[in-house]
Design brief:
The complex is a heterodimer of chains A (338) and B (247). By secondary structure, chain A is mainly α. Chain A is built from 14 helices and no strands. The chains are: A mainly alpha (338), B alpha/beta (247). Chain B: Keywords: ATP-binding, Nucleotide-binding.
Chain lengths: 338, 247
């Protein structure tokens, strides 16, 4: 049963999603290897940081971590919605189609190869180039004329992702010299949000807002692409040109998510799905809805990752894969049977 | 004012030629049928006219300007294209598809609500594509195509997958659009083509073999030759000719 997506109900549904996100953020703050009750949280925030150790931890350490996780999730949700729109396939996902893997190669090179250049911008640029190149590789292999079929698209994505994984492993082996960098790269590949400092959090917030700002103008084109190339053309779109633009934006969004959260699987798949279910397929509403849902999902999964196996922390990517894998399999079975 | 020119258009792919040196000019409103056996190049010709396919030689022009030189939005507002098959990737509502069709022109009178009302589809606005019947889908697509009152309407086998009643309904709607627009439709059904069209373009193996009125086409033997049939005309009480193929 598909819920009604009457447009008059949309503000209410967005309110629902916002409340859901607020709940997820609260869970993220409560969860951890030391659980904090909401009352404890309130006390910690009331005297802004407080003087005791726990308050300090909650405000200085856990809060930015939860916010970063939510924003990485928002980026993944938007990236997933763009990818599904461009590929016209509800099973398209940046992680499955190698875009995240491409970004991770870029990040690996930036971290391990002494380029003698400033770290941050180089990492961002190389992540973006990696995601962009990988996406075009999949596009070229699957063929985007008309509507690529699901099996072909996923196989092309799997092949590209496998190649990129091998290249990344090789780079890690060849370039590592027991420096701390290898550890960072490894945590990247398993997915995980690092607790950012204030500057990092601000950059991430800007990136997230920017991602939404550059994605929303794609909404009409993505809607039209969903009608098929011919009809999109007839309704005033140049499909080839628009696809280039959308892939560029999608790769940039994915690169930002990977730079801050590593390889987090399936969020880009699930968030647009729930969004389409709640809000309908029109992208002007679907893009922000996917952002809200992705943010809530990752905030919760990150909380689970921190709380499940104290005092250790399990990688975020494992949590999302455990939840998202079955989700993906069910969708795939339903689609292949249809 | 509307003029469509096909100037020495050829389309060929690896030795086999789909269209050979086709030239004609269509002037003003009316209903033009494109006829021919399977594989004659009817759909290819329509795609060239729509600007969906670039010819390998020659060019298609609307109002004297080659189709690729029209800016995307102007092109879309000028020409409506009704595809033979249409399957959206997402389960849009009927109103979404009409909004996307209406949104291709900047004109204010093409608001989705107006278009829905104009085509009697208001009750279907919130219905999802997967829940529409074949006839309803055809009406939604037609409304989306005609939303901007395009001067040129191209239809690839309109109603091919519909039952007779819905097919006739669709053709009547196209016919009434042809009072103010130039409608070019690929037609499969000879009877319906002869009944609805003002002018027929007959294709055979990529070549234009006849370009005339239905009456002249019936008077000659081009139809029999192209379809490899012996056709017999039967005059009906309402002055329409029926054509019966005798094999």
């Amino acid at each position: 049963m598909t819920p009604q997506t009457d447009r008059r109900l949309q503000p209410r549904r967005f309110l629902l999603l916002t409340l859901f996100l607020a709940g997820a953020l609260l869970f993220g703050l409560v969860a951890g290897h030391e659980w904090a009750s909401p009352a404890r949280l309130a006390r910690a925030f009331a005297n802004s940081g407080g003087h005791d150790m726990t308050s300090q931890l909650l405000v200085v350490w856990r809060l930015p971590r939860v916010l970063a996780a939510a924003m990485v999730g928002a980026l993944l949700g938007v990236g997933g919605a763009i990818f599904q729109g461009v590929f016209r396939n509800p099973l398209a996902e940046p992680y499955l189609l190698g875009a995240s893997g491409g970004a991770a190669i870029g990040a690996t090179i930036a971290l391990l190869v002494p380029l003698g250049l400033p770290g941050g911008p180089v990492l961002a640029a190389l992540s973006f180039l990696g995601a962009w190149g990988a996406t075009w590789l999949v596009l070229g292999a699957a063929g985007l004329q008309g509507r690529p079929d699901t099996a072909g698209l996923l196989l092309a994505g799997v092949a590209v992702a496998a190649m990129l994984g091998a290249v990344r492993s090789f780079l890690m082996l060849a370039l590592s010299d027991d420096t701390v960098n290898l550890q960072v790269v490894l945590s990247w590949t398993l997915g995980g949000v690092q607790t950012p400092d204030a500057g990092g959090l601000a950059i991430l917030a800007l990136l997230t807002a920017g991602a939404l700002a550059v994605s929303l103008p794609l909404a009409r084109g993505l809607d039209l692409l969903g009608l098929g190339d011919d009809q999109a053309f007839a309704f005033g779109l140049d499909p080839a040109r628009f696809e280039r633009r959308a892939v560029l934006v999608g790769a940039a969004v994915v690169a930002a998510a990977v730079a801050f959260g590593g390889l987090v699987a399936f969020v880009g798949l699930i968030a647009p799905h729930i969004g389409r279910w709640l809000i309908g397929p029109r992208h002007r509403a679907l893009l922000p809805a996917s952002a809200l849902i992705g943010a809530a999902l990752v905030a919760v999964c990150d909380g689970v990752a921190r709380a499940a196996l104290p005092p250790a922390e399990i990688p975020l990517g494992l949590v999302t894969a455990l939840i998202g894998g079955p989700f993906f399999l069910i969708l795939l079975m339903r689609r292949l049977r249809a | 004012m509307i003029a469509v020119d096909c100037a020495s258009v050829s389309v060929g792919r690896k030795g086999t030629s789909l269209l050979r040196d086709i030239s004609f000019r269509l002037n003003g409103a009316g209903f033009v049928g494109v006829l021919g056996p399977n594989g004659a190049g009817k759909s290819t010709l329509l795609r060239v006219l729509a600007g969906l396919r670039a010819p390998d030689a020659g060019e298609a022009r609307w109002n004297g300007l080659a189709t690729p030189r029209w800016p995307a939005r102007k092109r879309a507002a000028f020409c409506g294209y009704l595809p033979q098959q249409f399957a959206p990737a997402w389960d849009y509502e009927a109103g979404d598809i009409i909004a996307l069709g209406a949104g291709r022109a900047s004109a204010g009178d093409a608001s989705p609500g107006h278009v829905l009302a104009r085509f009697g589809l208001t009750a279907l606005a919130r219905r999802r594509w997967s829940m529409l019947s074949g006839g309803e889908r055809a009406r939604v697509m037609l409304a989306a195509t005609l939303a901007t009152s395009p001067a040129l309407v191209l239809a690839d086998e309109p109603g091919a997958s519909l039952d007779v009643r819905h097919k006739l309904d669709l053709l009547r709607r196209l016919r009434s659009a042809s009072t103010s627009s130039l409608v070019v439709a690929v037609m499969h059904d000879l009877d319906l083509a002869l009944r609805f069209c003002d002018r027929i373009l007959l294709l055979e193996e990529g070549a234009l073999v006849a370009d005339c009125s239905p009456d002249d086409l019936l008077a000659g033997d081009a139809l029999d030759r192209v379809f490899g049939l012996r056709l017999q005309k039967v005059r009906r009480h309402d002055d329409h000719d029926w054509v019966i193929g005798l094999g």
